[in-house]
Amino acid sequence: MRHFLVIFKTFLILGLILTLFSCDNNRNTKGICKKNPEICADLHGDSWCRFERGHLIRHRLELKNTETPSDKQVYDQLIFLEDYSNCIELAAGVEHIINTDRTFDRQRAFVISTQNLAQLQEHTKDNPSPLLSYYHWSRSNDQDALLRLLAAEKLDLLTDPEVIGYLAGYYLTRDIKKSQAMYIKAIAFSNEDNFKYDWLLGLSEAYERQKDFERSYLAAKAGVILGKNHVMPEKMRELLGNNQKVIDYLDERADELADEIDDEDFADSKIRLYLAKPVTQKDAKK
After folding, report:
1. With bands split at pLDDT 50, 70 and 90, how would you rate the model's confidence at 95?
2. Cβ-proximal residues to 182 (8 Å cutoff; 6+ apart), any chain
3. Does the structure show a pLDDT above 90 at 19?
4. Which DSSP helix (H) or strand (E) runs through 286?
5. Could you read off the pLDDT of 198-230 as tens digits, one per residue?
6. Within 10 Å of residue 197's Cβ, how many Cβ atoms?
7. How far apart are CA 211 and CA 218, in angstroms?
8. Region of poorest pLDDT, from 35-39, 55-59, 196-200, 227-231
9. Per-residue DSSP letters for 42-76?
10. CA end-to-end span of the chain
11. 3-state secondary structure of 195
12. What number is the average pLDDT over the span 120-128?
């Protein structure tokens, strides 16, 4: 009973925090819209898509107060506008029987958001920025954007972990060693806000393709730990010959790796150096 009360109180407190955050978030955007009506004029007015709308409004204010927006700011605007448009598209399909004006307001907002997004996409289509090139390649398979991105990678100009990780996946079937290096770089450059455990699963595949099953297991296990709700594939144990001694050792190393990433210490860790080593014939199991 006591355990139940502790859990209940925890959820109650969490709920209150989220409610207060939501209220502050709503007041914040209302204040911005009141002082800067042009920022919000094309957006819907009710509470649907609250977070997407709030992110877009605050970022528009940031752009308004920036004389020359950076490539990152333009990229973020594309993402926030894209998220808002996708959300309001769903909301526009919900019809109000009594307040029909709300339905019209959302439909209007959706149409305008798609127009604004298309205009910004067209405006940035040929931008040489690695970040914007990545956006256009990942969204519309723009081959010119890909060529610009590959050129930037050769010059070692990529610093955004999302871009590096996405490109690592591109190299997975083209240059396995480069894919391995780029997944490790993406993890090293990441933090708790932008880390993706999928990079560890991609790194695991890179090792597996090179028949380095121990490092493949290690990366996959760390990915499972950080992904939290995923289960380790049974085939990973089979590739190690179900050798429990080796598996136990790698499980311990995987915990260490997950901790290093979680604490943002991976970039300067010994385990990064271990993972970055090229696969040799000794490592590869036949």
Report:
1. low
2. 164, 165, 167, 168, 171
3. no
4. none
5. 999 999 999 999 999 999 999 999 999 999 767
6. 18
7. 13
8. 227-231
9. TS--SSTTHHHHHHHHHHHHHHHT-SS--HHHHHH
10. 56
11. coil
12. 96
The tokens of 107 are what? 């439909």
| DSSP label of 278 | P
Query: What distance in Å separates the CA atoms of residue 215 and residue 9, rounded to the nearest whole number?
Result: 42
In eight-state DSSP terms, residue 267 is G
Task: List, as one string, the DSSP characters of 141-158.
Answer: --HHHHHHHHHHHHTT--
Tokens 């029987």 belong to which residue? 97
For residue 205, what are the contacts with CB-CB under 8 A and spacing of at least 6? 172, 216
Rounded-to-integer distance, Cα 103 and Cα 105, Å: 5
Q: Contact at 8 Å (CB) between 62 and 36?
A: no
Please provide residue 265's backbone torsions phi and psi, each rounded to the nearest 5 degrees.
-110, 5
Instruction: Specify whether the CB–CB gap between 87 and 50 falls below 8 A.
Output: no
Q: How far is CA 122 from the centre of its chain?
A: 23
Residue with tokens 């089979």: 238
Q: What is the largest CA-CA distance in the chain?
A: 72
Closest CA to 215 of 225, 204, 226: 204
Q: Which residue has the higher pLDDT, 73 or 15?
A: 73
Distant-in-sequence contacts of 35-38, Cβ < 8 A, 24+ apart: 36/61, 36/64
Assigned token pair, 31: 């204040």
CB 213 within 8 A of CB 188: no
pLDDT value, residue 196:
95
